[in-house]
Structure prediction request, 228 residues.
Amino acid sequence: EAGVAQSPRYKIIEKRQSVAFWCNPISGHATLYWYQQILGQGPKLLIQFQNNGVVDDSQLPKDRFSAERLKGVDSTLKIQPAKLEDSAVYLCASSLRTGIADTQYFGPGTRLTVL
Amino acid sequence: QQQVKQSPQSLIVQKGGISIINCAYENTAFDYFPWYQQFPGKGPALLIAIRPDVSEKKEGRFTISFNKSAKQFSLHIMDSQPGDSATYFCAASSTGGYQKVTFGTGTKLQVIP
Prediction:
């Protein structure tokens, strides 16, 4: 079974530029998560999709971050414009379903550096 | 109330020793407590998980101890090996509705030969 795929793996941008990350979850997984992991901290949930609908985006800075999951499969996370404090690893995870104690499978992450 | 506090921040253990990582939570609605292991350059991977209806769960060298009244839980790694060197995150979630996982701050474990 293929795991969660993410690209790019690394990205360096100047502040105020825009950037987009892509995630392909495990086939058949209905739930998709985007997390932000700042160095030395645990992952923080940014947004959670159930199929192609948003179930939680309470910690997403909506003035600069946006995410979509078209057709309930792949997802993109965008930052526009980026700030220095956005430097972090952005992790995508997926699980078979939600509402129960379901295992989340994480991708390798995209390391973003904002200069 | 959504916080999960984790300690220590870092831990050095000799090969063959016991590694112990502690976590505490406040939200009594949490009913699922997973531990994740993360190697450098990789995403976290589920290691072991427990529900509050049991006080202990063991899988191989890894054991979760759970104290519901104290709202604390811990991970014990028996016979620690250099290959266990990684960052460990405790987490908690409430499974009613949709599952939102709150992670601890992580413990960087180094097992020295």
In short: Chain B has a mean pLDDT of 93. Chain B has no helices and eleven strands.
